[in-house]
Amino acid sequence: MIYTVTFNPAIDYLVHFPRLRPGAINRSEAEEFQFGGKGINVSNVLRTLGFDTVALGFVAGFIGEGFEKGLTQMGLRNDLIHVKEGMTRINVKIKAAEETEINGIGPVITAADMERLYEKLDRIGSEDLLVLSGSIPKGLPGDSYERIMARLEGRGIPVVVDAAGELLVKVLKYRPFLIKPNNHELGEIFGRELKRDEEIVDCGKKLQQMGGRNVLVSMAGDGALLLDQEGRVHRIGCPKGRVLNSVGAGDSMVAGFLAGWLDSGDYDYALKLGTAAGSATAFSIGLAEKPLIDRLLESLKSGA
User: Fold this and answer.
1) pTM of the predicted protein model
2) Which residues, 6 or more positions from 64, have their beta carbon under 8 angstroms from its beta carbon?
3) What pLDDT is stored for residue 304 in this prediction?
């Protein structure tokens, strides 16, 4: 089983405007609701690709109840923890000439709530896979991912970490199976601006030396680069398409990569499927759907 953890999930309210006028009444031309959060997005796209997952995380209040109900109605398995204080977020994503996001705070997660999460994680084993995605909410220790991985150490559980900065660096000593910084996040870790593939490879190898087994670096419209644990470097460009949405593209890449690797054990194929899934979300209003993922995957296989 694949487990994903999202500390601060949200209902994303997407509103579309031909033009946004600050200080005036703006009437949307289209609206959508999405049940979001980085781990939730990974679970969603993995389900689209035929993999069962269990989404873990924290919710609160009547919005949290609606969030949980929504996931269940979508057929997304979840084992969410209801906390007492605060409210699950509603994030507003404004789609106009430029994308604007208004993100809420989220509920208060206590040490007792974290203990309930640890108890759930204690039930998973080496035949499972764990995905830790996103930032840590205010009020929680900044080493929360590190504590989770320390608790799971020695149990042979492959762990994927999609996080930035010190949150990522601190878990490398536990040898996560996959880490996915983007090129900007990778450069920030080493205080460099990375402009060439050779520079990205150099920094990626340093993360491997620090403990990351497979390093997947996303580069938006420039494609992606993978340093696998067998010592090979894989490079791929992006398929052609019109970018409509940046929300969830990186999470979709993680999901596609995992699906490809679990299906085949082949890193080259995993990178292609990850790139297809990430691009399919970027070319869609919401998260990627399988027909578009399949079409983009075929274009990457053919080199079109």
Assistant:
1) 0.91
2) 80, 82, 87, 88, 107
3) 55
